[in-house]
Amino acid sequence: MTKTVAIVTGASQGIGRATAMRLAQDFSALVLVARNRTKLEETASAVREGGSEALVIDRDLAEPTAAATVVEQTLSAFGRIDALLNIAGAVPGLDVFQMTDEQWDVGLELKLHGARRLTVQAWDALRMSKGTVVFTSGNAAMTPKAAAAAVGAINACIEALAKAFAERGIVDDVQVNCVSPGAIMTDRRTAMLERAAAAKEINIAEAKQSFLKQAGIARFGTAEEIADLMAFAVSPAAHWMTGTVLRMDGGEIRSV
Ligand SMILES: NC(=O)c1ccc[n+]([C@@H]2O[C@H](COP(=O)([O-])OP(=O)(O)OC[C@H]3O[C@@H](n4cnc5c(N)ncnc54)[C@H](OP(=O)(O)O)[C@@H]3O)[C@@H](O)[C@H]2O)c1
Questions:
Q1: Rg of the chain's alpha carbons, rounded to an integer?
Q2: Is 214 in the pocket of ligand 1 (CB under 6 A)?
């Protein structure tokens, strides 16, 4: 039986970790990328328990040379790449009038350029396997806010970038889509709520309720729910779907 290989970035925690664990059901080998080796090894153990091989690559994807290393190590270990899931992201949620050029660069270097470079580096292998790519944006692409301007702007860039790769993918037989999560309860979301609670001088439970009311949703999503959507996006059932943004947000975005 032919091995199937998926690279998952941001696999040390949150949505990336949940996605890697979910994909262990569908792929024979998972390549787990992020900076924290200890946490990546924990994901790797869970992936192996789920029935898949796991390779840990602890690299900072904001470094320009990291993408080539990830692809080289993947091909050296497994010889092919069937799916690339660009999930890593850590865009600073700062006010547009306070954010420095350096802080913009931090967000852009990882979430936009890290994903772009990895996709470019993996493209030849993806062409050979007729593979699939998923980018991760977020609701803020549709509802940018002054208080966290880079989050919206960079997520909108990601959706445009995914479309651009998807156009080339029609010729090259590589499927490219974007998953846009709403408010998902991960460490990143907890940190955002803690900052909001401190700013409003309320407790974390009140900050959660305040967020849900403002967003008009019944609850936060889970990383596992987004992982299931990621798994669908790279499954044979979704093969003809390309250049699409798949949103899962509990109904937060009200526009068509
Ligand atoms: N949670 C939400 O509500 C939500 C909503 C919309 C979109 N999203 C998007 O979904 C993605 C995952 O979010 P999450 O909530 O799961 O976040 P998270 O819990 O903070 O996880 C972020 C992941 O990115 C990795 N990462 C950060 N900087 C990195 C770097 N320089 N190089 C390599 N990896 C790096 C982290 O690992 P290390 O620290 O080990 O490097 C971690 O695995 C992000 O792109 C985020 O923008 C999340």
A1: 18
A2: no
Cα 12 to averaged position of ligand 1 atoms, centre (Å): 9
Substitution candidate for ligand 1 out of 7, 8, 9, 15 with most atoms within 8 A of CB? 15
Q: How far apart are CA 211 and CA 205, in angstroms?
A: 10
Q: Is residue 1 pLDDT above 70, yes or no?
A: no
User: Which of 192, 182, 211, 210 minimizes the C-alpha distance to 15?
Assistant: 182
For residue 85, the cross-strand partners are 8, 134
| Segments making up each domain of the chain, as ranges | 5-183+222-248, 185-220
pTM higher than 0.70: yes
Query: Mean pLDDT in the chain?
Result: 97
Please state the rounded mean pLDDT for residues 206-224.
97
Mean pLDDT, residues 90-119 taken together: 96
Check whether domain 5-183+222-248 has CATH 3.40.50.720, yes or no: yes
